[in-house]
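DM between two lab members

TW: hey, do you still have the histidine kinase entry open?
JB: yeah, one sec
JB: this one, 457 aa:
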Amino acid sequence: MRQRLVIVFLIPMLGLLVVLGGGYAWSSAQSVQQAFFADNAGDLSYFVTNARQALASGNSLVLASEIERYEELYGASVVVIDRTGIPWELNGRETRLDEETLARVSLALSGRRGETPQAMLPWAAERMTLVEPVFTDGDVIGAVVLSQSMAAPRAAITQHWGWIAVLGALGTAAGVLVVLRLARWVLRPVRRVDEAMAAIEHGDMDARIDKATGPPELQRMILVFNNMAAEIERVLARQREFALNASHELRNPLNALLVRVEMLATGLPESWDDDVEATREEGRRLVRILDTLLSLSRSGHGDAEVRAVDVSELVAARAAAWDDVAARAEVRLLVRGEPGVVCATDAFVVESALDAIIDNAVKFSPRGGAVELGVIRRGDAIGIEVRDHGPGVPDDELEAITDRFWRSAGTQNVPGSGLGLAIATDLLASIDGALDITAPSGGGLCVTLWVRREAAA
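TW: and the structure you got?
JB:
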């Protein structure tokens, strides 16, 4: 937007400078040439008066001395022509005229006065030639030719145009500075809105914009934005409070209900064992759902505590923590990969995401199967692979596997809430990580937790 504003303001300003500068440059050139023509025309009139006396008397001594001084002073050339069209040889100098000048001399001897020179570019001609007839009592008795170099007016015009170019460049620079400051002033309120939106995107829900920022048109938008941000903050706070309260409030009656189920089971005959076990499993499933809700509500609070973490040790520690659970399911946990892999990350987030994935892998692995855990490197990223050999997921369902409460049609009978991978995805996103899920050729799933900030050696 800033570039568009600069272009919108700068192009008309540059066009105006070009038009005004070009007009003034042409006007100054004409003024210099007219002054130059007027001065030489005055000098020519002076020599015409003196040539009249000299031609009438036939004495050229006085005229020759004046012409010599004039030529030495101004570098011009003055030639006196008698009525026969032959130049006078003044001071022993032989004069030759070109064909164009001779043609103009013929016109002057016929009684026609020279035309006023027209304005032209300074480099259009090397010399300016003026021819004026000499009259006495109405008869033409000769002509005077004045030839002057155009170097002086050319230098004066070039100097004027140089100053115009310098002033134009300074004006352009000043205009660019003004346009940049104007664009910055115009966009300052928009930039504040953008900064506030970015802050909210990064979790700072308290970010607001001063109501007096910008023009009245933008203040209305800022008011709407502040109200929207406040409403979003209230909604998120209510959601988290609801999840926390629901998790805590439902846990006690659920535990009490499970205790009563155990007490009732002691007085029931063996024919009720299947129903009792189903009730226990449903209770445990509710407990897992409550734990999941609690994790979701807490994951949105606080910033990541980034520090150097030995990912290899972290994976080994979590595998050891899950050994008992895996043993009850008759599943082996195998840890592989290179040791001593260190990266800068939040250990709690990685552990929580890894627990959710290990839980899924153990849950869906067949009895006697194995879950393989390993640490890999790829460029500047570090990955933790969790590979199971369970039923897996069809390729067309892989994209939906991280959606909340999603369950595959082939695993509906397996206990679970459908939130494990969704939680892992959200947790990793909070530390600039990612979750990669593939279906390997041997069956099962391979879930990779990518941590993208590798510590310096």
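TW: got it. The CA atoms of residues 139 and 162 lie 49 Å apart. The longest strand covers residues 139-149.
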